[in-house]
Structure formats: structure tokens, C-alpha cells
Amino acid sequence: MKNISYGVGDILFREGEKSSEVYRILRGRVEISIDGNQKAVTLAQLGEGDIFGEMAMIDERPRSSTARATTPVECEVMSPEDFQHAIFENPRSLIPYLASFFERLRTLNDRLQLETRLRMTEQASSPALQKQHSLRAPHHPERSRFPLQMDTIHIEPPAGARTAIIHPMTPLCASKIDSDGSPVQIEKFPFRIGRQSEHVDKTVNIFSANDFPLLDQEPYQISRSHCSIEREGDSFFVRDRGSKLGTIVNGNPIGIHHSTLTCDLREGVNTVILGSIRSPFKFQVELE
């Protein structure tokens, strides 16, 4: 395992390249993108602590995206040999990497469950409808590449929006954010939201990794890995990460128990509810 520094604009790896290292950002920011029809499509904007490139270590396929430093960056770079060595010599160092692997596995599992359920429903209702669905192109075909998802509840992308701000809508939400209930500006995507770990130590929870942990009490409205706010190109959207009760975005329920895992955000103010319609965890997400 080694630390490598990169300058602004440096390419860490390119789409289609054959390499197998996984990266963890120690400082700085990295943009993940794919080649679009006219220009590169931004899939993620990552910051300190984020891990990327792990799938190349697992499946030995060419890189599915390009990673570029947008600020001076220092990364911890781990090869497959480093990973196997750490299993025996320093397993604790692998906790953040395993959390990232589990997040990817959860995303794939959620999509498979939803896809299977929808296919079975369509087969039971109409074989012709099943064929029509299999031929229908998704609203955002590039989203199936990183990360995977089903068709989204689609809204025209907001023109010129570059960031998002979370505002609490209830006193409970305000108290869970910080002492003065100030809005939270999102500076990285995906921005993962989930229930705060009850562990007394401050280590990363191996089963979930959240940028915005929230305290909740039984009966829980928030799952350990609840949802995320993400960006692809000029589109911003909310993804349910397999939560137990789902997520409601502008009145649209999403999650593994519904017909979609994602919902686009519109320009201006959006309402996001974590859990059921009666959940006290209600926020506004404002696109600027």
C-alpha cells in the first residue's frame, strides 16, 4: 500500500484502462466521469475518506469510468496483493474498504430484487408488456454503469444547478443536524444519509458508510444505509439505498418495495422524507 499525490487535472485512471488498484482519498477532491455523446458526464464528486475503483480489483475488467483530480489530491492506493496482505497483517485497516464493498453489494442486490419482482409481475399480467419493458430505454442510460439502478422518476434536469443544500423542516431534524440547526451544503456526491451507529467507538461501521449520520430511536424510521443524494451530469437525484421503510421525494415513494429506487430532484426546493409519510425526519433539498 502506498500514498500518491496528484495535481489539479491529473488523471488517476481512464475509462477503458486496465488496472486493478483501489483508491482512498486522504485529502482533496476527485471527479468520476464517463465519456458522453458530446462531453464527459460527471457521475460522482468525491472527497476525503471516499473510496473508488474497487470493482476493478474484484472483476478484473477495464475501468468503467475516468477519475480526475479537481484539487491537489493525496490518495492511499491499494493493489490486490496489498489487500490480501492486509487481511492477515492489519485487518483493521480494511474496515473502510469493506464498508465500500458492502455498499456496492447492497446496490446490486437492491436492483436485482426490484428487477426480479417487476419482471415476475409483468409476466403474470402480460407477456407482451414484459417484452415492451425489456426493449424500453431508461431515461438515463449512463446511470446503469455507475452505480446501477432501475428506471427513475424523471424530471427535466435543472439548468445550471451545481450544488445542493439540506434544510431541516422540523425541530427534531434541526436538533439532529447540529447545535444551531444550520443548513448543510453538500460538497460531494454521492452524499449518503443513514442512521448513526450506536457503537461507542468512532471507527467506521463496516456495514454502512454515511456522510450524514442521524440519530434515531426505536421504532426506527431511518435505516443504517437509508438514501443518498447523487449527481450525474446536470441531473441531481435521490437514491434509496435499500431502506426498510423507503424514502419519499416530492410525494413520490421510492425504495425496494416500490417500482423505482430513484427520483430526480427539480430546480429550487424539494421535500425529502426518510421513512414513512408520518416520519418526523423531513428535509428540504434546495438545488442552487
Number of strands: 19
Q: What low-confidence regions span 5 or more consecutive residues with pLDDT below 50?
A: 129-152, 154-158
Name of the top-level CATH class of the largest domain: Mainly Beta
Portion of residues within helices:
10-25%
- CA-based shape: globular
What's the number of structural domains?
A: 2
Pattern of helices and strands: EEEEEEHEEHHHEHEEEEEEEEEE
Describe the structure in brief.
The chain has 288 residues and is α+β, with helices and mostly antiparallel strands.
Provide an overview of this structure.
It is globular, with a radius of gyration of 19 Å. The relative contact order is 0.14. Mean pLDDT is 83; it is low at 129-152 and 154-158. By secondary structure, it is an alpha+beta fold. A 6-stranded antiparallel sheet has the order 10-9-19-18-15-16. It folds into 2 domains: 2-89, Jelly Rolls, CATH 2.60.120; 141-287, Tumour Suppressor Smad4 (Sandwich). The chain is 22% helix and 31% strand. A hairpin with a 4-residue loop joins β4 (30-35) and β5.
